[in-house]
Design a protein that fits this description.
single chain; alpha+beta; Aminopeptidase; five-stranded mixed β-sheet; 5 strands; about 35% helix; globular
């Protein structure tokens, strides 16, 4: 398996992977997520082209089987929060037919190296409550719970 920077040539594979997770999120949380749409192509291409973000793919042979996006944030406005650089992992997606093969683990390790090279002091991510399998992976990699996001629908 090879982890490398995503390119515009990867867009169809990335969109197919994103559709897998997008369908799941939308089915579980239709008030939070939209169904996959054609607008995602332009958004993903913009993120791929962004110089201040990590957008990497996991490749097996000629096939893209996973991707990860991340960015470095520094709090500059809230006086009671740390000013240390923090790497925020935005997305981790592994093809449903290639899970439990170390791909997610390799993508996270890659993001940690990328973050370390940029002097980040932490890596943070959010995992949806329905994704217990991913939560277990992240906990096995040393991630601990920092907070919870609660939601309430208003009528």
């Amino acid at each position: 398996m090879k982890i490398r920077q995503a390119t515009a040539q990867d867009i169809d594979a990335i969109l197919a992977l994103n559709q897998q997770i997008g369908q799941l999120h939308y089915a579980q949380y239709p008030d939070v997520f939209c169904p996959p749409s054609p607008e995602e192509r332009a958004f993903m291409l913009q993120v791929i082209g962004s110089e201040d973000r990590l957008f990497c793919v996991a490749q097996l042979g000629n096939r893209v089987v996973g991707f990860l996006t991340a960015r470095i944030d520094i709090n500059r406005t809230v006086p009671f929060l740390s000013k240390q650089p923090i790497c925020w992992v935005s997305s981790v997606v592994v093809d449903e037919h290639h899970r439990s093969q170390g791909i997610g683990r390799a993508l996270i390790a890659h993001s940690e190296r990328w973050a370390h090279e940029r002097d980040a002091k932490q890596v943070r991510l959010e995992v949806m409550i329905l994704n217990e399998r991913a939560a277990l992976l992240y906990e096995s990699l040393g991630f601990t719970r920092l907070s919870q996001t609660l939601t309430k629908q208003l009528s």
